[in-house]
Amino acid sequence: MARETSCLARVTTGVAVGGAVGGAVGAVYGTYEAIRYKVPGLLKIRYIGQTTLGSAAIFGLFLGAGSLIHCGKSY
């Protein structure tokens, strides 16, 4: 039972770290793209938000999946 809890904790941590890193990268990239393509007015905020959430979701998904794959391995 302790191993399952440990695995769940690892996957949860992987998703959280991936989401944080993805959100940071997405915010920077979204801001750059919004300025580069001259997105008008308040649409900039929407564009940056979409990019941030999308990147956070993708990074979190892949880091969580990687943590799940590594859960079964013992080093």
Topology:
Layout: H1 2-36, H2 43-71
Helix pairs in contact: 1-2
Transmembrane segments: 7-32, 52-71
Organism: Citrus x changshan-huyou
Protein name: Reactive oxygen species modulator 1
Compute the average pLDDT: 91
The poorly predicted ranges are none
Taking the sheet with the most strands, its summary is: none
The global form is rod-shaped
Explained architecture:
The structure is a single chain. The chain has 75 residues and is an all-alpha fold. It has a domain at 28-67. The protein is 85% helix and 0% strand. It has helices at residues 2-36, 43-71. It is rod-shaped, with a radius of gyration of 16 Å. The mean pLDDT is 91. It comes from Citrus x changshan-huyou. It is found in: Membrane.
Task: Tag the structure with descriptive keywords.
2 helices; 85% helix; membrane
Brief digest:
The protein is mainly α. 85% of the residues lie in helices and 0% in strands.
